[in-house]
Write a structure and sequence with these properties.
Layout: H1 6-15, E1 37-43, E2 46-52, H2 62-76, E3 83-88, E4 93-95, H3 100-106, H4 110-128, E5 134-138, E6 141-143, H5 145-152, E7 155-159, E8 163-165, H6 177-187, H7 189-198, E9 202-203, H8 204-209, E10 215-217, H9 222-234, H10 238-252, H11 259-264, H12 272-282
Parallel strand pairs: 2-3, 3-5, 4-6, 5-7, 6-8, 7-10
Antiparallel strand pairs: 1-2, 8-9
Helix pairs in contact: 2-4, 4-5, 5-6, 6-7
Length: 292
């Protein structure tokens, strides 16, 4: 597929405009060089990871996938982080998928494709395996690789005008199984077949009904709600949050717990946070958890 601006190719599918000229890339007044990058900032115990590719609806190129994996790895090792919010730059898109323009050179052969999508799967794994809770703040288009990233997060908060899908059947390629796995676990085979076989773009209300998103709020409130969610998570005991993620994943395997695992589920008994939580309750005050 020859396209001077892959982000806007996807935009045409989102809008239902499959005919007509492709809109050219537009310089961003705040990012005149239109650099594709992963941004990361900390506000206390809450980290924000931003997918930024101005002019391409935050389409994700290979370097961004690699940087996303590295960024999530650094945050995973940071014991001061209580929650990670993932979002797209601006309000037009969370991410409109992979940067299709790059596919012509970076994914042209089998070896390249295996390497490329192995890197994508690694990035999704880094999001899914993050020991800290993750919240996807979704505004606008959440398509293809963007949907995969959001699906790897623990919670997904979106605005009413958000749109979801993976219309890659219109582009002639299939979703890599390593990328499909997370969405399949999230939404189930029936929803995955609907998304991939029809290539239809879902509204926020449809995505919520199908279990793809956690909460839908007014567009003007989505950022406030996502960060309020992160603060609620951050106010809890961080070790407990990590254990809850661990046990939910373990129970999804379907295998019965061993006696050792049952005993390990009470590891909280030896923590300072457990003693602090009980003391705060009895003293009618807010707990001050330290992750110990």
């Amino acid at each position: 597929m020859v396209c001077s601006n892959s982000g806007y190719c996807i935009h045409n599918y989102i809008s239902g405009l499959t005919t007509g000229p492709i809109m050219p890339a537009r310089p961003s007044p705040t990012h005149p060089t239109m650099t594709a990058q992963i941004l990361c900032r900390r506000d206390g115990a809450i980290a924000t990871v931003t997918l930024a590719n101005p002019g391409k609806l935050n389409a994700i190129d290979l370097a961004m996938w690699q940087d996303l994996a590295a960024t999530m790895g650094r945050l995973a090792a940071d014991g001061e982080v209580r929650c990670v919010v993932l979002r797209g730059e601006g309000e037009e898109a969370f991410a409109a998928g992979g940067d299709l323009e790059e596919f012509l050179t970076a994914r042209a052969t089998l070896d390249q494709a295996l390497h490329y999508h192995g890197q994508v799967a690694d990035a999704l794994g880094a999001v899914a395996d993050c020991p800290h809770p993750t919240v996807a703040l979704i505004q606008g288009a959440c398509i293809g690789g963007g949907l995969e990233i959001a699906g790897a997060c623990d919670l997904r908060i979106c605005g009413e005008s958000a749109r979801f899908g993976a219309p890659i059947n219109k582009l002639g390629f299939s979703m890599y199984p390593g990328e499909m796995e997370g969405l399949l676990k999230l939404a189930g085979p029936a929803v995955m077949k609907e998304i991939l076989l029809e290539g239809r773009i879902l509204t926020a209300a449809e995505a919520y009904a199908k279990g793809l998103v956690t909460r839908v709020v007014a567009d003007a409130q989505v950022a406030d709600e996502a960060y309020a969610t992160a603060r609620r998570i951050g106010a809890g005991a961080p070790l407990v949050a990590g254990w809850h993620k661990q046990w939910i994943r373990r129970l999804q395997s379907g295998a019965p717990l061993t006696e050792e695992e049952k005993a390990a589920s009470f590891a909280f008994l030896a923590t300072e946070d457990y003693r602090e939580g009980l003391a705060a309750f009895l003293e009618k005050r807010r707990p001050l958890f330290k992750g110990r």
